[in-house]
Amino acid sequence: MDKFVRLRAEDNVVIASMALGRGDEVEGLTLCDPIPVGHKIATQALAKGSAVRKFGQIIGYAAEDIVAGAHLHTHNIEFRPTEGAYEFGTDRSPVLQVSEAEQDHFMGYKRANGTVGTRNYIAIVTSVNCSATAARRIADAFGP
User: What is the DSSP letter of 60?
Assistant: First the structure.
């Protein structure tokens, strides 16, 4: 098993895929902190205020000068709003419109009492693994 995962080439962090100890080596760097599984490791020195990149996106800023091989977490990363030029779906194709006759129905079902119903789903999608616990709590609030 690999010790870490690099998500994008331009990231300045990797993610520990197992618990790592101080002195372990990752990408030719000697770790200066123990790293819990799933946590971030700086792969280069980060000056205070510089961007921390994961998934090729800015996920925070160095709250202090950080050396390569350091554990990155809430103690040394500050989170603040970022301006992003995110372009998703810009390569979309036009959709053919449905004819008028096909618009007069819905995909529902008839209940035994004569009323109708539909199936509704709520999807909770996170952009980072760090929010998995929050997503689970949201899902549990709507679940049976």
Answer: E
For the segment 4-41, what is each residue's pLDDT rounded down to a tens digit? 999 889 999 999 999 999 999 988 899 999 999 999 99
Residue 96 belongs to some domain of the structure? no
DSSP line for 81-109: --------STT--PPPPPPGGGGS--S-E
Question: What CATH number did the domain enclosing 42 receive?
Answer: 2.30.130.110
**Which range of residues forms the domain containing residue 39?**
4-78
Residue 41 placed within a domain: yes
Strands across the sheet containing 77-78: 51-54, 57-62, 77-78
- Tokens describing residue 125: 């999608």
